[in-house]
Write a structure and sequence with these properties.
- The complex is a heterodimer of chains A (about 350) and B (about 600).
- Chain A is of the alpha/beta class.
- Chain A has helices spanning about 35-50, 65, 85-95, 105-110, 115-125, 170-175, 190-200, 225-230, 280-295, 310-315, 330, 335-345, and strands at about 55-60, 75-80, 100-105, 130-135, 135-140, 145, 180-185, 205-210, 235, 235-240, 255-260, 265-270, 300-305.
- In chain A, a hairpin with a 5-residue loop joins strand 5 (about 135-140) and strand 6.
- The relative contact order of chain A is 0.12.
- Chain A has a single domain (about 20-325), classed as Thiamin diphosphate (ThDP)-binding fold, Pyr/PP domains (Rossmann fold, 3-Layer(aba) Sandwich).
- The radius of gyration of chain A is 22 Å and the shape is globular.
- In chain A, the strands form three sheets. Chain A has an eight-stranded mixed beta sheet, sandwiched between helices. A three-stranded antiparallel beta sheet of chain A has the order 10-12-11, with helices on one face. In chain A, strands 5-6 form a two-stranded antiparallel sheet.
- With about 600 residues, chain B is an alpha/beta fold.
- Chain B folds into four domains: about 20-215, Pyruvate-ferredoxin Oxidoreductase, domain 3, CATH 3.40.920; about 225-405, Rossmann fold, CATH 3.40.50.970; about 420-490, no CATH class; about 500-610, Rossmann fold (3-Layer(aba) Sandwich), CATH 3.40.50.
- Chain B is about 40% helix and about 20% strand.
- In chain B, a hairpin with an 8-residue loop joins strand 3 and strand 4.
- In chain B, helix 1 (about 35-50) crosses helix 6, helix 3 (about 135-140) packs across helix 7 (about 180-200) and helix 8 packs across helix 9.
- Chain B is globular, with a radius of gyration of 27 Å.
- The model of chain B is unreliable at about 5-15 (pLDDT under 50).
- The chains are: A alpha/beta (about 350), B alpha/beta (about 600).
- The interface between A and B is large, with 57 and 72 residues.
């Protein structure tokens, strides 16, 4: 057959092209780490063959929280108020548990104004992906420190941070999130694999993604700059991912690789760089994170994963269908019930 | 503190030899946590079962046990069930307050008291009945540990003799109170009977107050406003409930949990609802919004402090245009002080809750029947107008027991508002989220999860154009605000209309709302009977004000607006809404001491302002 026709565009398992997963043009600064994360989200959703209409993009306020406008334009989105995305997402999932909730937050939106809601979200193990685009500063208000800024980190203005950082990953592990990891916006391969695994997980996924702010926090003396992160990144594993709809053919020698079977049958494949590390052990996760702080490493990888814990919907014993659209016959009890209630009050 | 103001009796003091039948109020003063609540409910139900109109008001401290608490029961043959300012009959069980309680009574009142308190020395113009409760309880309750609780079931028996309660009805009320706890029921029945037998044998009746059987309560129920609201929400098809415990709203959600667990489980054993106790009111309202955005009938219940925390999200709800139903069971606030006392203090705050230009729909229930029916109306309005709707109840309505007519089963189907389905989108091709297609200010929306490529819209605050796209253009912003205003104007014709009592000749109008209704109804009769002053009465049931409210003001020379707050908040809202020429007609009657408003206070104030 002659090959003069243009080849059909690449499509995913739903027959959709990657264009279907794109969003509006970004208005963030050129080179912002957040844009790279948006790109990886598009790739992950496309490659996993997620139906765009099933995705609920949720956010609070800040540079990070603007990004849902820049990817997946065919998905519903709710840009809510500062620090309160967790509650809005919780409500949305209560109303329609068939949605795939993807929450985008920042270090200010999460670790300061939103720390209360963040903490309680983690406790509930609500099925959702919670991403912190973490740059250690407030961008939209022009460069104040956030609560994830490291001790001794220096602002452009010369101000030195003298308060210890909040480790959102350690918090998430301790509080009950069932998939916790840290990545770097500049680490394409690791981030993409972790995002795909996140999509396959059924519970709260908390990913802290170091995402340098090129305008306010990318200078010498900053511990969240591209250079500093590249120099200090210490991956815990090589992370790869095999979706359930692809054959797994490669076998790795036992002991070096850990396969975690995700909720949908996909495999999260962790090629161990630290032999003793077991990501299903909470205590080990917490102590390894503490050690990273001590040694000034930016530890990345999957710190903790638990595919067995019941999620919030299971605990609530909710109907399988979306509550939002249950027919009247199922949400308004018949007259006999009212009569019975009235009789009991006479 | 004294819960009665200086008494003014309308029948005069010459009561000797006279029988005062089914027209008195009884106050029981006890210590919080001593089991008196059961005894008081038993008395209330006994009177109710005797067919006499009755109401009960619990004046309780912010405390679990140990502080003074009062319960006032009013029996009234005319059906007046507002709080009565004067107490006719006191049961003094609390050493801490007994002397002050007795001092605050009017001459001619009667007092049953715990003998060791020696109250008869306090004054000599009231009738005293000392009762040795500890001795009596020892005879019926061998278990010394239980005596403290059972002791309080003796005074209902004593009162049965003194006031003429039917003991068979009382026993029925006790057995009902203790349900399946047979032993507890027996013990308490015996205690009441011991009190009754003792009183029959040893107390000579010397006061004029009597209860006599009537037949006014056929088909009536007794329920508190919060439980009525819970029932209303269940039958309104609520699916997502998120809340943070706060007095006096907690019992609304707790009742709802009980009802839903009983009646809203699917055949698969799974619930057709989710009730989540949130970490605070910020999260509670955030969850309501998220759920409503995704299409659920969602609600929360709170009180003033919670409303304050919900301000930001309420504004977002108004601008994103997602429904929300918020119960505000108003109390005195903020912080500590009188969190367990009633008020209508959140009216002006809620009307414009949040920053920026906002105006919210409020409903004002006056009775349990309306807590029930307005629940359904609130959900319909919230979804129809895609906006938050507040139901402004209060502690008096929410937490006290009220007689009510049996609730009517809702016949209207749920109004889910302008929601486009997948099929609609296929037919239309697409939609513009904030375009005023129908001229009523209300756009069409889609729910997340709808499988159509053009279904998605981006929910965000004020800065959007008709398509829901981000915009900072001045004309887009003005367009949006003007449309929201139009929506609010449309709401005037859909919110519940006021209730009016007018004979068409009076030049004086009174506007009241919420629990003020009961005192106002009685005050209207007082004004007529005692001062030959006829007043027309309009009971507001919603904000924004409907045209009937404007007409009512226009057709009277003077309007008294009754508020249970210091500043006349409803009066102020009316001022903003009325034609300037009408504003000068408004006068204000205010009551704000933490107690439910009473008829006498209204009557006196109107008479004083009338210059009579």
């Amino acid at each position: 057959m002659a090959s003069t026709t243009t080849p059909a565009p690449r499509t995913n398992r739903l027959g959709l092209t990657v264009i279907e997963y794109k969003g509006g043009k970004t208005t963030l600064c050129a080179g912002c780490g957040h844009n790279a994360i948006s790109e990886r989200i598009i790739d992950a959703m496309y490659e996993m063959g997620v139906e765009p209409h099933r995705v609920a993009k949720m956010s609070g306020i800040g540079c990070s929280s603007k990004t849902p406008a820049y990817f997946m334009g065919k998905s519903h989105s709710f840009n809510s108020v500062h620090g309160r995305m967790p509650s809005v997402t919780t409500g949305a999932m209560l109303a329609n548990r068939t949605l795939l909730a993807l929450g985008i937050s920042g270090d200010g939106d999460t670790a300061s104004i939103g720390i209360g809601q963040f903490i309680h979200l983690m406790r509930r193990n609500l099925p959702m992906i919670y991403i912190i685009e973490d740059n250690g500063v407030y961008g939209l208000t022009k460069g104040q420190f956030s609560a994830t800024a490291d001790l001794g980190s220096v602002l452009k203005t010369g101000v030195i941070n003298d308060l210890p950082p909040i480790d959102t990953c350690a918090l998430a592990v301790q509080l009950g999130a069932t998939f916790v990891g840290r990545s770097f916006s500049g680490d394409k391969k690791q981030l993409l694999a972790m995002l795909k695994a996140a999509i396959a997980h059924n519970g709260t996924v908390m990913l802290d993604i170091i995402s340098p702010c090129v305008t306010f926090n990318d200078h010498e003396g900053s511990t969240k700059s591209y250079k500093f992160t590249k120099d200090h990144e210490e991956p815990l594993q090589e992370v790869s991912f095999v979706p359930h709809f692809e054959d797994i053919s490669v076998d790795y020698p036992a002991g070096e690789t850990l396969d975690v079977t995700m909720h949908d049958g996909s495999k999260l494949r962790l090629h161990k760089l630290e032999e003793d590390y077991n990501p299903t052990d909470k205590l080990q996760a917490l102590s390894r994170l503490a050690k990273a702080h001590q040694e000034g490493e930016i530890l990345t990888g999957v710190f903790y994963v638990n595919t067995q814990a019941p999620n919030f919907m299971d605990l609530l014993n909710m109907a399988d269908e979306p509550l939002a659209t249950l027919p009247e016959s199922r949400v308004r009890p018949p007259k006999e019930v009212l009569d019975k209630c009235m009789d009991a009050l006479r | 503190m004294a819960t009665t103001d200086l008494a003014v009796h309308d029948i005069g003091s010459g009561r000797e030899g006279q029988r005062v039948v089914n027209d008195w109020s009884l106050q029981v003063a006890t210590v919080n946590g001593s089991g008196s609540q059961s005894a008081n409910t038993v008395i209330l139900r006994t009177i109710f079962q005797m067919g006499v109109p009755v109401s009960g008001k619990n004046l309780f401290p912010s405390n679990i046990a140990g502080l003074p608490t009062w319960y006032t029961i009013r029996a009234n043959r005319h059906g007046y069930i507002a709080r009565k300012k004067e107490i006719d009959f006191l049961v003094a069980m609390n050493p801490e307050t007994a002397v002050e309680d007795v001092k605050s009574l009017a001459p001619g009142s009667a007092v049953v008291y715990d003998e060791p308190l020696n109250l008869h020395t306090v004054r000599n113009d009231v009738t005293f009945y000392p009762v040795a409760f500890d001795k009596l309880v020892a005879t019926v309750c061998p278990d010394a540990k239980l005596r403290k609780l059972v002791k309080n079931m003796i005074y209902p028996g004593v009162l049965a003799h003194l006031l003429g309660f039917d003991m068979a009805e009382m026993e029925k009320a006790i057995r009902r109170q203790f349900g399946k706890k047979q032993k507890a029921a027996d013990l308490n029945v015996n205690a009441a009977r011991a009190g009754y037998d003792y009183a029959v044998a040893s107390i000579e009746k010397r006061d004029p107050f009597w209860a006599e059987r009537m037949d006014e309560n056929r088909d009536k129920i007794i329920i508190d406003g919060n439980a009525a609201a819970a029932l209303g929400c269940m039958f309104a098809g609520v699916t997502v409930v998120t809340w943070y415990p706060i007095t006096p709203s907690s019992s609304l959600v707790e009742s709802l949990i009980d009802y839903m667990k009983k009646y809203r489980m699917g055949p698969d054993g799974k619930s057709t609802f989710a009730i989540v106790q949130a970490e605070d009111e910020l999260a509670a309202i955030g969850m309501v919004l998220g759920a409503a955005w995704a299409g659920a009938r969602s609600m929360t219940a709170t009180a003033g402090p919670g409303i304050s925390l919900m301000a930001e999200f309420t504004g977002l709800s108004y601008y994103v245009e997602v429904p929300a139903v918020i119960w505000d069971i108003q109390r005195v606030g903020p912080s500590t002080g009188l969190p367990t006392r009633t008020s209508q203090g959140d009216i002006s705050f809620v009307a414009g809750l949040s920053h920026g230009d906002t105006r919210h729909i409020m409903l004002f229930p006056s009775k349990p029947e309306e807590c029930f029916s307005m629940a359904g109306e609130a959900f319909d309005l919230a979804e129809q107008f895609q906006t938050p709707v507040f139901i402004m109840s209060d502690l008096d309505l929410g937490m006290n027991n009220w007689m009510a007519d049996s609730f009517e089963y809702p016949t209207k189907p749920l109004n889910r508002g302008k929601v486009l389905s997948k099929e609609d989108l296929h037919r239309l091709g697409g939609f513009q989220r904030y375009k005023d297609v129908d001229g009523d200010g209300i756009g069409y929306r889609t729910l997340p999860g709808v499988d159509h490529p053009n279904a998605a819209w981006f929910a965000r605050g004020s800065g959007h154009n008709e398509k829901g796209l981000y915009s900072e253009r001045p004309d887009d912003y003005v367009n949006n605000l003007d449309r929201l205003k139009r929506k609010s104007e449309t709401a005037r014709s859909f919110v519940p209309k006021p209730e009016m009592v007018a004979d068409g000749t009076s030049k004086i109008g009174v506007i009241g709302f919420g629990t003020t209704h009961w005192a106002m109804t009685e005050s209207r009769d007082q004004l007529k009977k005692e001062y030959r002053l006829d007043v027309d009465y309009l009971r507001l049931r919603a904000f924004p004000f409907t045209k009937e409210v404007h007409e009512f003001v226009a057709s009277h020379d003077r309007i008294y607006v009754i508020d249970q707050n210091r500043d006349g908040q409803m009066r102020d809202l009316l001022k903003l809404d009325l034609d300037p020429a009408q504003v000068t007609k408004l006068r204000s009657v205010r009551h704000y001491n933490g107690l439910p408003i009473d008829a006498r206070s209204i009557t006196d104030e109107i008479i004083s302002q009338e210059g009579r």
